[in-house]
Amino acid sequence: MAVGQRQPEPLRRIITTHDSTSGRAIFSDAVGEQVSFTGFPVPPGKPTTSDYALAYSTTTFPVQGLSPPNSANPESKGNLDIEHYHSLLSDPSPLNPPNGTSCTIIEVPPGSEVPMHRTATLDYGVVIDGTTELVLDSGEKRLMAKGDVFVQRGTAHAWRNITEKQENSGILRVFFVFQPIEQVRLEDGKIVGQDLNLSLCET
Fold it and tell me: Which intervals hold domain Cupin type-2 (predicted)?
């Protein structure tokens, strides 16, 4: 939980699956619908300024193990993605496994920010509540409002919550899908990798 802030309300996440005989879509009850928020670890070891909920996560691409258990598919091979996700919920990470994806909701309290950091991921994101300033390590900035979409390509960035108090009580919420990438290389061969401590280098 972000320091000095309220605990965000759990979000509701619905998972579908297949009826093992008919193949019709049904709702899965393997995992409870509520997903709790926890402190977003940027930078690591420091008090958190925002929170996240891991709405889903996969370990393979294409995603494997979606078949339901039945006579043609043993229990040990059925719904493997749901089992993997369920196993992460006791100690979730907002980022994706090496060969998989993660679906994460980040909530930033009024007047707070997510400090400068870089993840080794390609991120699809949508602002679902509030207004934010997306800041790059080059100094470039963009304002993003509810409904805006961004694509982060392994680049360093920070998020500043500039949501007005009368809008959503000043809370910023952003929907992310994190995906693995090849290493980013510059002209001199330098690898630009993950660094969650960039904000500490600025002080």
Answer: 105-165
